[in-house]
Write a structure and sequence with these properties.
Distance between the termini: 9 Å
Strand content: 5-15%
Largest sheet: 5 strands, parallel
Mean pLDDT: 94
Strand order of the largest sheet: 2-3-1-4-5
CATH superfamily: P-loop containing nucleotide triphosphate hydrolases
CATH class: Alpha Beta
Order of helices and strands: EHEHHHEHEHHEH
Number of strands: 5
Helix content: 40-55%
Structural class: alpha/beta
């Protein structure tokens, strides 16, 4: 098997961790979640890091932990939603693997996140009826970064067959 480093990007709630786990089983390669890796190195949750140290500190750690994947081969990494938008993260991911933007429908994201939003520092204080607008604005703001992904899956194309066509087109 040739090297398959796959970076899944997209808004929070787009399904990056979900699809990474599913694909990991099918492809028999390890899966990592960038936020979980940061939590391991810091010894606290992302929400706590944001609260204690602020977003700038978190983004620096995120960049450092992302770069620890340099030299690794055959893995899936679900990034945090903001990861592609800071430092040279998007450029680095494109240079070190296949980037797939999971461009999920906003209303789907809202329905997935509304119940557990208190655990998400960026949306914890956003009123429920403002979440859709919040995500539309966030998507627009992050579009210049997300659109640099090598592949984009939207709506009905977000399925196992589409991921496998990108990751293992001739196997």
């Amino acid at each position: 098997m040739n090297n398959k480093n796959v970076f899944l990007i997209g808004l929070m709630g787009s399904g990056k961790s979900f699809w990474a786990k599913k694909l990991s089983i099918i492809l028999n390669i390890p899966v990592f979640d960038l936020d979980s890796e940061i939590e391991k190195t810091e010894g606290k949750t992302v929400a706590k890091i944001f609260a204690d140290e602020g977003e700038n500190y978190f983004r620096k750690k995120e960049n450092e932990v992302l770069k620890t994947f340099a030299g690794n081969n055959n893995f899936l990494l679900a990034t945090g939603g903001g990861a592609p938008c800071f430092f040279d993260n998007m450029k680095w991911m494109n240079a070190n693997g296949t980037t797939i933007w999971i461009d999920e429908i906003i209303i789907t994201i809202v329905s997935r996140l509304i119940k557990g939003k208190s655990h998400r520092p960026l949306i914890a204080n956003v009123p429920d009826d403002k979440l859709e607008d919040f995500f539309l604005q966030m998507r627009n703001k992050r579009l210049p970064f997300y659109s640099k992904a090598k592949f984009q899956l939207t709506g009905d194309d977000i399925n196992i067959a589409s991921f496998l066509e990108i990751i293992s087109p001739h196997e």
